[in-house]
What we know:
- By secondary structure, the chain is mainly alpha-helical.
- It is built from eleven helices and four strands.
- The chain has helices spanning 3-10, 16-19, 23-47, 59-79, 84-87, 90-115, 127-156, 164-190, 219-226, 228-242, 247-269; strands at residues 51-52, 55-56, 195-196, 216-217.
- The strands form two sheets. It has a two-stranded antiparallel sheet. Strands 3-4 form a two-stranded antiparallel sheet.
- A hairpin with a 2-residue loop joins β1 (51-52) and β2 (55-56).
- The longest helix is centred in the middle third of the chain and has 30 residues, at 127-156.
- It is globular, with a radius of gyration of 20 Å.
- 36% of the residues are buried.
Amino acid sequence: MNTLTWTALTRTAPAPELAAVDAARTLWALTGFSLALLLGFVAASALETRTLEGANVWLKPAKFALSFAVLYATLALVVERLSVAVRTGWALRMTLAAMVLATWTEMAYIGGRAGSGLTSHFAVATPMEALLYSLMGVGAVTLVVGIAVIGWLAGRDAAAELGPGLRLGVRWGFAMSALLTLVTAGYLSSNSGHFVGVPSADAAVIPLLGWSGEVGDLRPAHFLALHAMQVLPLLGWWLDRRGKPARLTVHTAAAVYAALTLAVFVQALMGLPLVRL
């Protein structure tokens, strides 16, 4: 990309009230919003007696609220280190606008379905349910693409307060998280459920995580894919703190992490559990 195109993407809006909007503050606000939702769902679960697929109806919305809190806190920690031009530029502002819309609609759908005692995922029994599930998929893709765009902007921002290791970790971690999530979550959403195989009614699961210990489960690979955006930047940050060269280590770690994620994904496709219990 040439200098003129990069300048256009990072150019601040001319209106003072728009130019004053800083993407880092927006991301921290989204983190707070997600934590407030989490607390609300946890409080609701304490008063709720209904269950859905063997768990409290508010468990899934609470998990998604926690996931959004982690996502936006991670993005905020990176974005607040970017230059003012990028933080207030059009590219980042438009990306965040799309991600905010996707977050609100995703949580409204998941929370609304839970409140009605209905599942939100793999619900395609009626044309309306199929449409809403497809729209939720569009929102998920929007969020994933947003992660990739922010990682690309961070990698391009020469004035960002990012050490060489952290910059590489963000660039590779965000890109890998987006790509691997599209692969794993894309297959997961087209599947009839989380499992490859049919677990027995009393099948053992991995404590806390709930992943199957009897048949293939697609969620472990999806989990690894999502969290590449935390693992690799943390590695790069640690290398910077230790004053160690980062390029070879981060590149090697990225390759190993991608291979591990794909291996866990293939293992699930073969109908094998992550750990047999």
